[in-house]
Amino acid sequence: MNCARAIELRARLAQLRKEELEIEAELCSLEASQSAALRSPLPSQESANVLSKEEIRRYSRQLLIPEIGTKGQKRLRDSSVLVIGTGGLGSPCALYLASMGVGTLGLVDHDAVDHSNLHRQIIHTEAACSGTAKVVSAHMGLSRLSSLCSVRIHNVLLDSSNAKGIMRGYDVVVDATDNAATRYLINDACVLLGIPLVSGSAVRLDGQLTVYNYNGGPCYRCLFPTPPPVDTMAGCSETGVLGVVPGIIGCLQAMETVKLITGRKKDECPSLLLFSYASQPHFRSIKLRSRAAGCAVCGDSPTVTELVDYVAFCGSGPHDNAPDWKILDDPAQRVSCNYFSAVRSITPRRRHLLLDVRSEVEFEICSLPNSLNIPLDQLGRRQDELEKAIGGLDGGPVYTICRRGNLSQLAVRHIRDKLGYNECYDIARGLVGWQDEVDSDFPAY
Amino acid sequence: MASIINTENTANNAKPLLPKLDFSDGSQELIVEFGGGLEALIKQEMLKNVKGAKQTNVKFPKQINKHPATIRDLIIHLRNFYVKEKPELFCTGDKVRPGILVIINEEDWEIVEDNSDKYDYELKNKDHILFISTLHGG
Fold it and tell me: Where are the coiled-coil regions (chain B) (predicted)?
């Protein structure tokens, strides 16, 4: 093998991939700057056009299925679907909708592509991780796949002020988002606009799928009239998710969308599909209630007739996955990462204790040298171990650390209040801060 | 704020805490399953893994205070004796907290119970009750 040539080719590929994204971004911003009047309108009804030779060749394997056939394929072509969220669910969903021949796809996302997205958000690439907007990156993924699909992107955070304007006119809306406030927002907008909603979710090893607001079935609020407590809304960045799990649910969202467009869905009862990595069988279908007459938005006498403030309604919003808590009121009980770095370089190891209170799995990912790991919820049970470690300090300080400096504050309070040991300080901003302020080579997760 | 993470671990009991239930009017066997993350709220020694499902067999009286036992009685019993800490993450008072669906024999309990109050559903021997939390992530 000619090594020099291979190196040269790889470098060229990397350059081309970067350029492709830049061209895509410029194209997207050109299209966005077009006035709404110049844009082609969303298809309002089935066109009379027969399938072209190109369409027949491309979709032939689908045309052969009687349940789809030429009629179904034309319906897909003449339909428009809005996918909200181009993450773990939206990536496969949008890719399959475009590949199966949905004529118009809308994409909504406000985020930029990050390395921690790539294990599940398969529409995005490594090249896009240096700040490319997700909708631009997804636009590229779709335009590579199909020139027959018209894609329109919305690089915004969906909220009460813009939701109806963006969603109006679409035949189906796919909820591929990651937080409760946006889920209520999308649900209410779908009810107010009369659009069926294909809703998917995935966390850790579990996934759920439901079609809302369709054919006498329930809406999201019929099932969940009241938002859950804030501390039960775990997101992927905190609790993790196996890459393929949202992939499975996102693919199923694409399938349900096809059923809605071809009309097959109207023969089905409302149901909730449960998926789990570990369970046998993997899937269970739960029969759901019909629309609730007393529902606040889709009921007989609705009280929600316009979009409301969903962040206030839920107590948390799209950005609140990793809040910064202020638990310790006394700033003297907190030290900065830089301060602790100085402590480490001058204090002999035996004279201080670094207590890492993250979970064991997080501790295994990365930790600072010579730290003792006792997860926060085990501080009570492992009190002997902790007291022994503190006993060897000769009155020296205990520093507590966690991922972001939240749990470590609770640990300080525990050690001061329950153990009566006041030489105890929290390292503000935790390991995220350590990477940011002290050691850029320290891994972030 | 301190209630978000309870630093006290109260699940130290080596043996399950068995409630004082009155079986003089007969008993029934229920299968109670927890999903969508709720399994983490339950004392681990109470749960067994059946083909990946986190569930527990509950021996429950047929009658409570001379009335047929209802799912309301079961929920209070689970809250009192199966939830290891932070009962507010399972119940608000004696109702399941918002965001939890109750599934009886693979059907939404809103369908199963045609009475006005689904908490009045009368338990039957071998009922399979699934408590599942809605997921938000994606």
Answer: none
Are the Cβ atoms of B137 and A286 closer than 8 angstroms? Answer: no
Q: What is the pTM of this model?
A: 0.90
Q: Is A223 on the interface with B (CB under 8 A)?
A: yes
pLDDT tens-digit map of A262-310 = 999 999 999 999 999 999 999 999 999 999 999 999 999 999 999 999 9
- Residue B21 belongs to some domain of the structure: yes
Nearest CA in chain A to B54: A279
pLDDT in tens, B28-51: 999 999 999 999 999 999 999 999
What's the mean per-residue pLDDT of chain B? 85
Asked if B52 lies within 8 A of A239 by C-beta distance, the reply is: no
Whether residue B90 is contained in a domain is answered as: yes
Cα separation of B91 and B104, whole Å?
A: 18
Domains of chain A: 16-35+48-314 (3.40.50.720), 331-438 (3.40.250.10)
Domain that holds residue B64: 6-133
Contacts of A356 (CB under 8 A, 6+ apart): A363, A367, A368, A371, A372, A373, A374, A400, A401, A402
* Facing residue for A232 by CB, picked from B9, B99, B110: B99
Closest Cα in chain B, distance from residue A419 (Å): 13
Instruction: Please check the confidence at residue A333 and state whether its pLDDT lies above 60.
Output: yes
| CB atoms A272 and B106 under 8 Å | no
Nearest CA distance, B135 vs chain A (angstrom): 6
- Look at chain B and report how many structural domains it folds into: 1
B2 Cβ contact partners less than 8 Å away, ≥ 6 residues apart = A327, A410, A413
CA distance A99 to A95: 6
The CATH number of the domain where B21 resides is what?
Answer: 3.10.20.30
